[in-house]
Amino acid sequence: MESEEKSEEDGGFVQTVRGERIAARIVTERERHVILRTRDGQAAKIVKGSGDRTLRTLESIRARNRRIRNLAEWRYLRGKTHPGLLRVGERVVDARRDEGFLCEWLDTPSLAAEPAFVSSMESYLCSAIVLAQAAGELHRDGYVHGDITPANACLRDGVPVLIDFEMSIRIGQYLSDNPGRFSNVFSATPSCCSPEQVRGLRIFPTSDVYCLGLTFLSWVSGYSGVWGDEQTVQRALRMCGRAQYPYWEIVVERLGNLAVVDVLRRSISLKPRDRFKDGYEFALALEDALDAMSVADRERPIMKPCIGKAPT
After folding, report:
1. pTM assigned to the model
2. Which residue of 16, 127, 187, 224 shows the fewest CB atoms closer than 10 Å?
3. Per-residue DSSP letters for the chain?
């Protein structure tokens, strides 16, 4: 969903199952997937290597598994209408016959800027409520997102939308290549993951709550999760594993509301049982904090973060 164009293929296109070709260009290419933007303004999320059905190599097997996850993501999202969830279109293939789906094109906010959705206490809390509810939809349906981060909260008309469901699993599974069994290789975004992910434990909605909390804190601090100017992957994982958040001083100063700060503190408690049980319970706590505010408190601006050398 990123807007920065990286390359353009001659004659680039995606083709629907009905045989319709839509001109498209590559805007983001990553290890596992490609994002294209179509001429009519949609996005296409394509699984790299999924057109190879020979299953003769380890990579082709992995690509098949990614294709299965991509298909499951599409099937789930096409039946959802919550404003905080991604809207998807048709299944498509690209010029290399790799498979994926069309979806809406969304804006990617910058933490270093002053996004409109966190300009006041009310806009900040309303944005957090929408995203928490979106995660709650998955939890009610028996899933955990597994990778809620500031980068996976894009914007539709200024409203946060949860994207990137590649790591989603059934509640109680492991975040690994084999969700049904324990694996020494776990999946996590180092700067924005739960203690359970770091320890390779089974994942429940409370883990998404933790990542939601870090995301909402990131909107205030200007830093993505626990990341900082002198941070390393290993140090970030240790901090997440111990539920150590380094920017409370910035958050408290900017928010200036202890009730909201207390809700955020609870969301990133070390022990899962001390957090909100799922996204909807988290959203209700945020709604209660908002309802208790005066009009003046709701309209109070949240100061722009001063991004400098981060504490480590």
Report:
1. 0.90
2. 16
3. ---------TT-EEEETT--EEEEEEEEE-SSEEEEEETTS-EEEEETTTT-----SHHHHHHHHHHHHHHHHHHHHTT---TTB--EEEEEEETT--EEEEE---B---TTS--GGGSBHHHHHHHHHHHHHHHHHHHHTTEE-S---GGGEEEETTEEEE---TT-EETT--SSSSTTS--SS----TTS--HHHHHT----HHHHHHHHHHHHHHHHHSSSTT--TT--HHHHHHHHHTT--TTHHHHHHHH--HHHHHHHHHHT-SSGGGS-SSHHHHHHHHHHHHHTS-HHHHHPBPPPP---SPP-
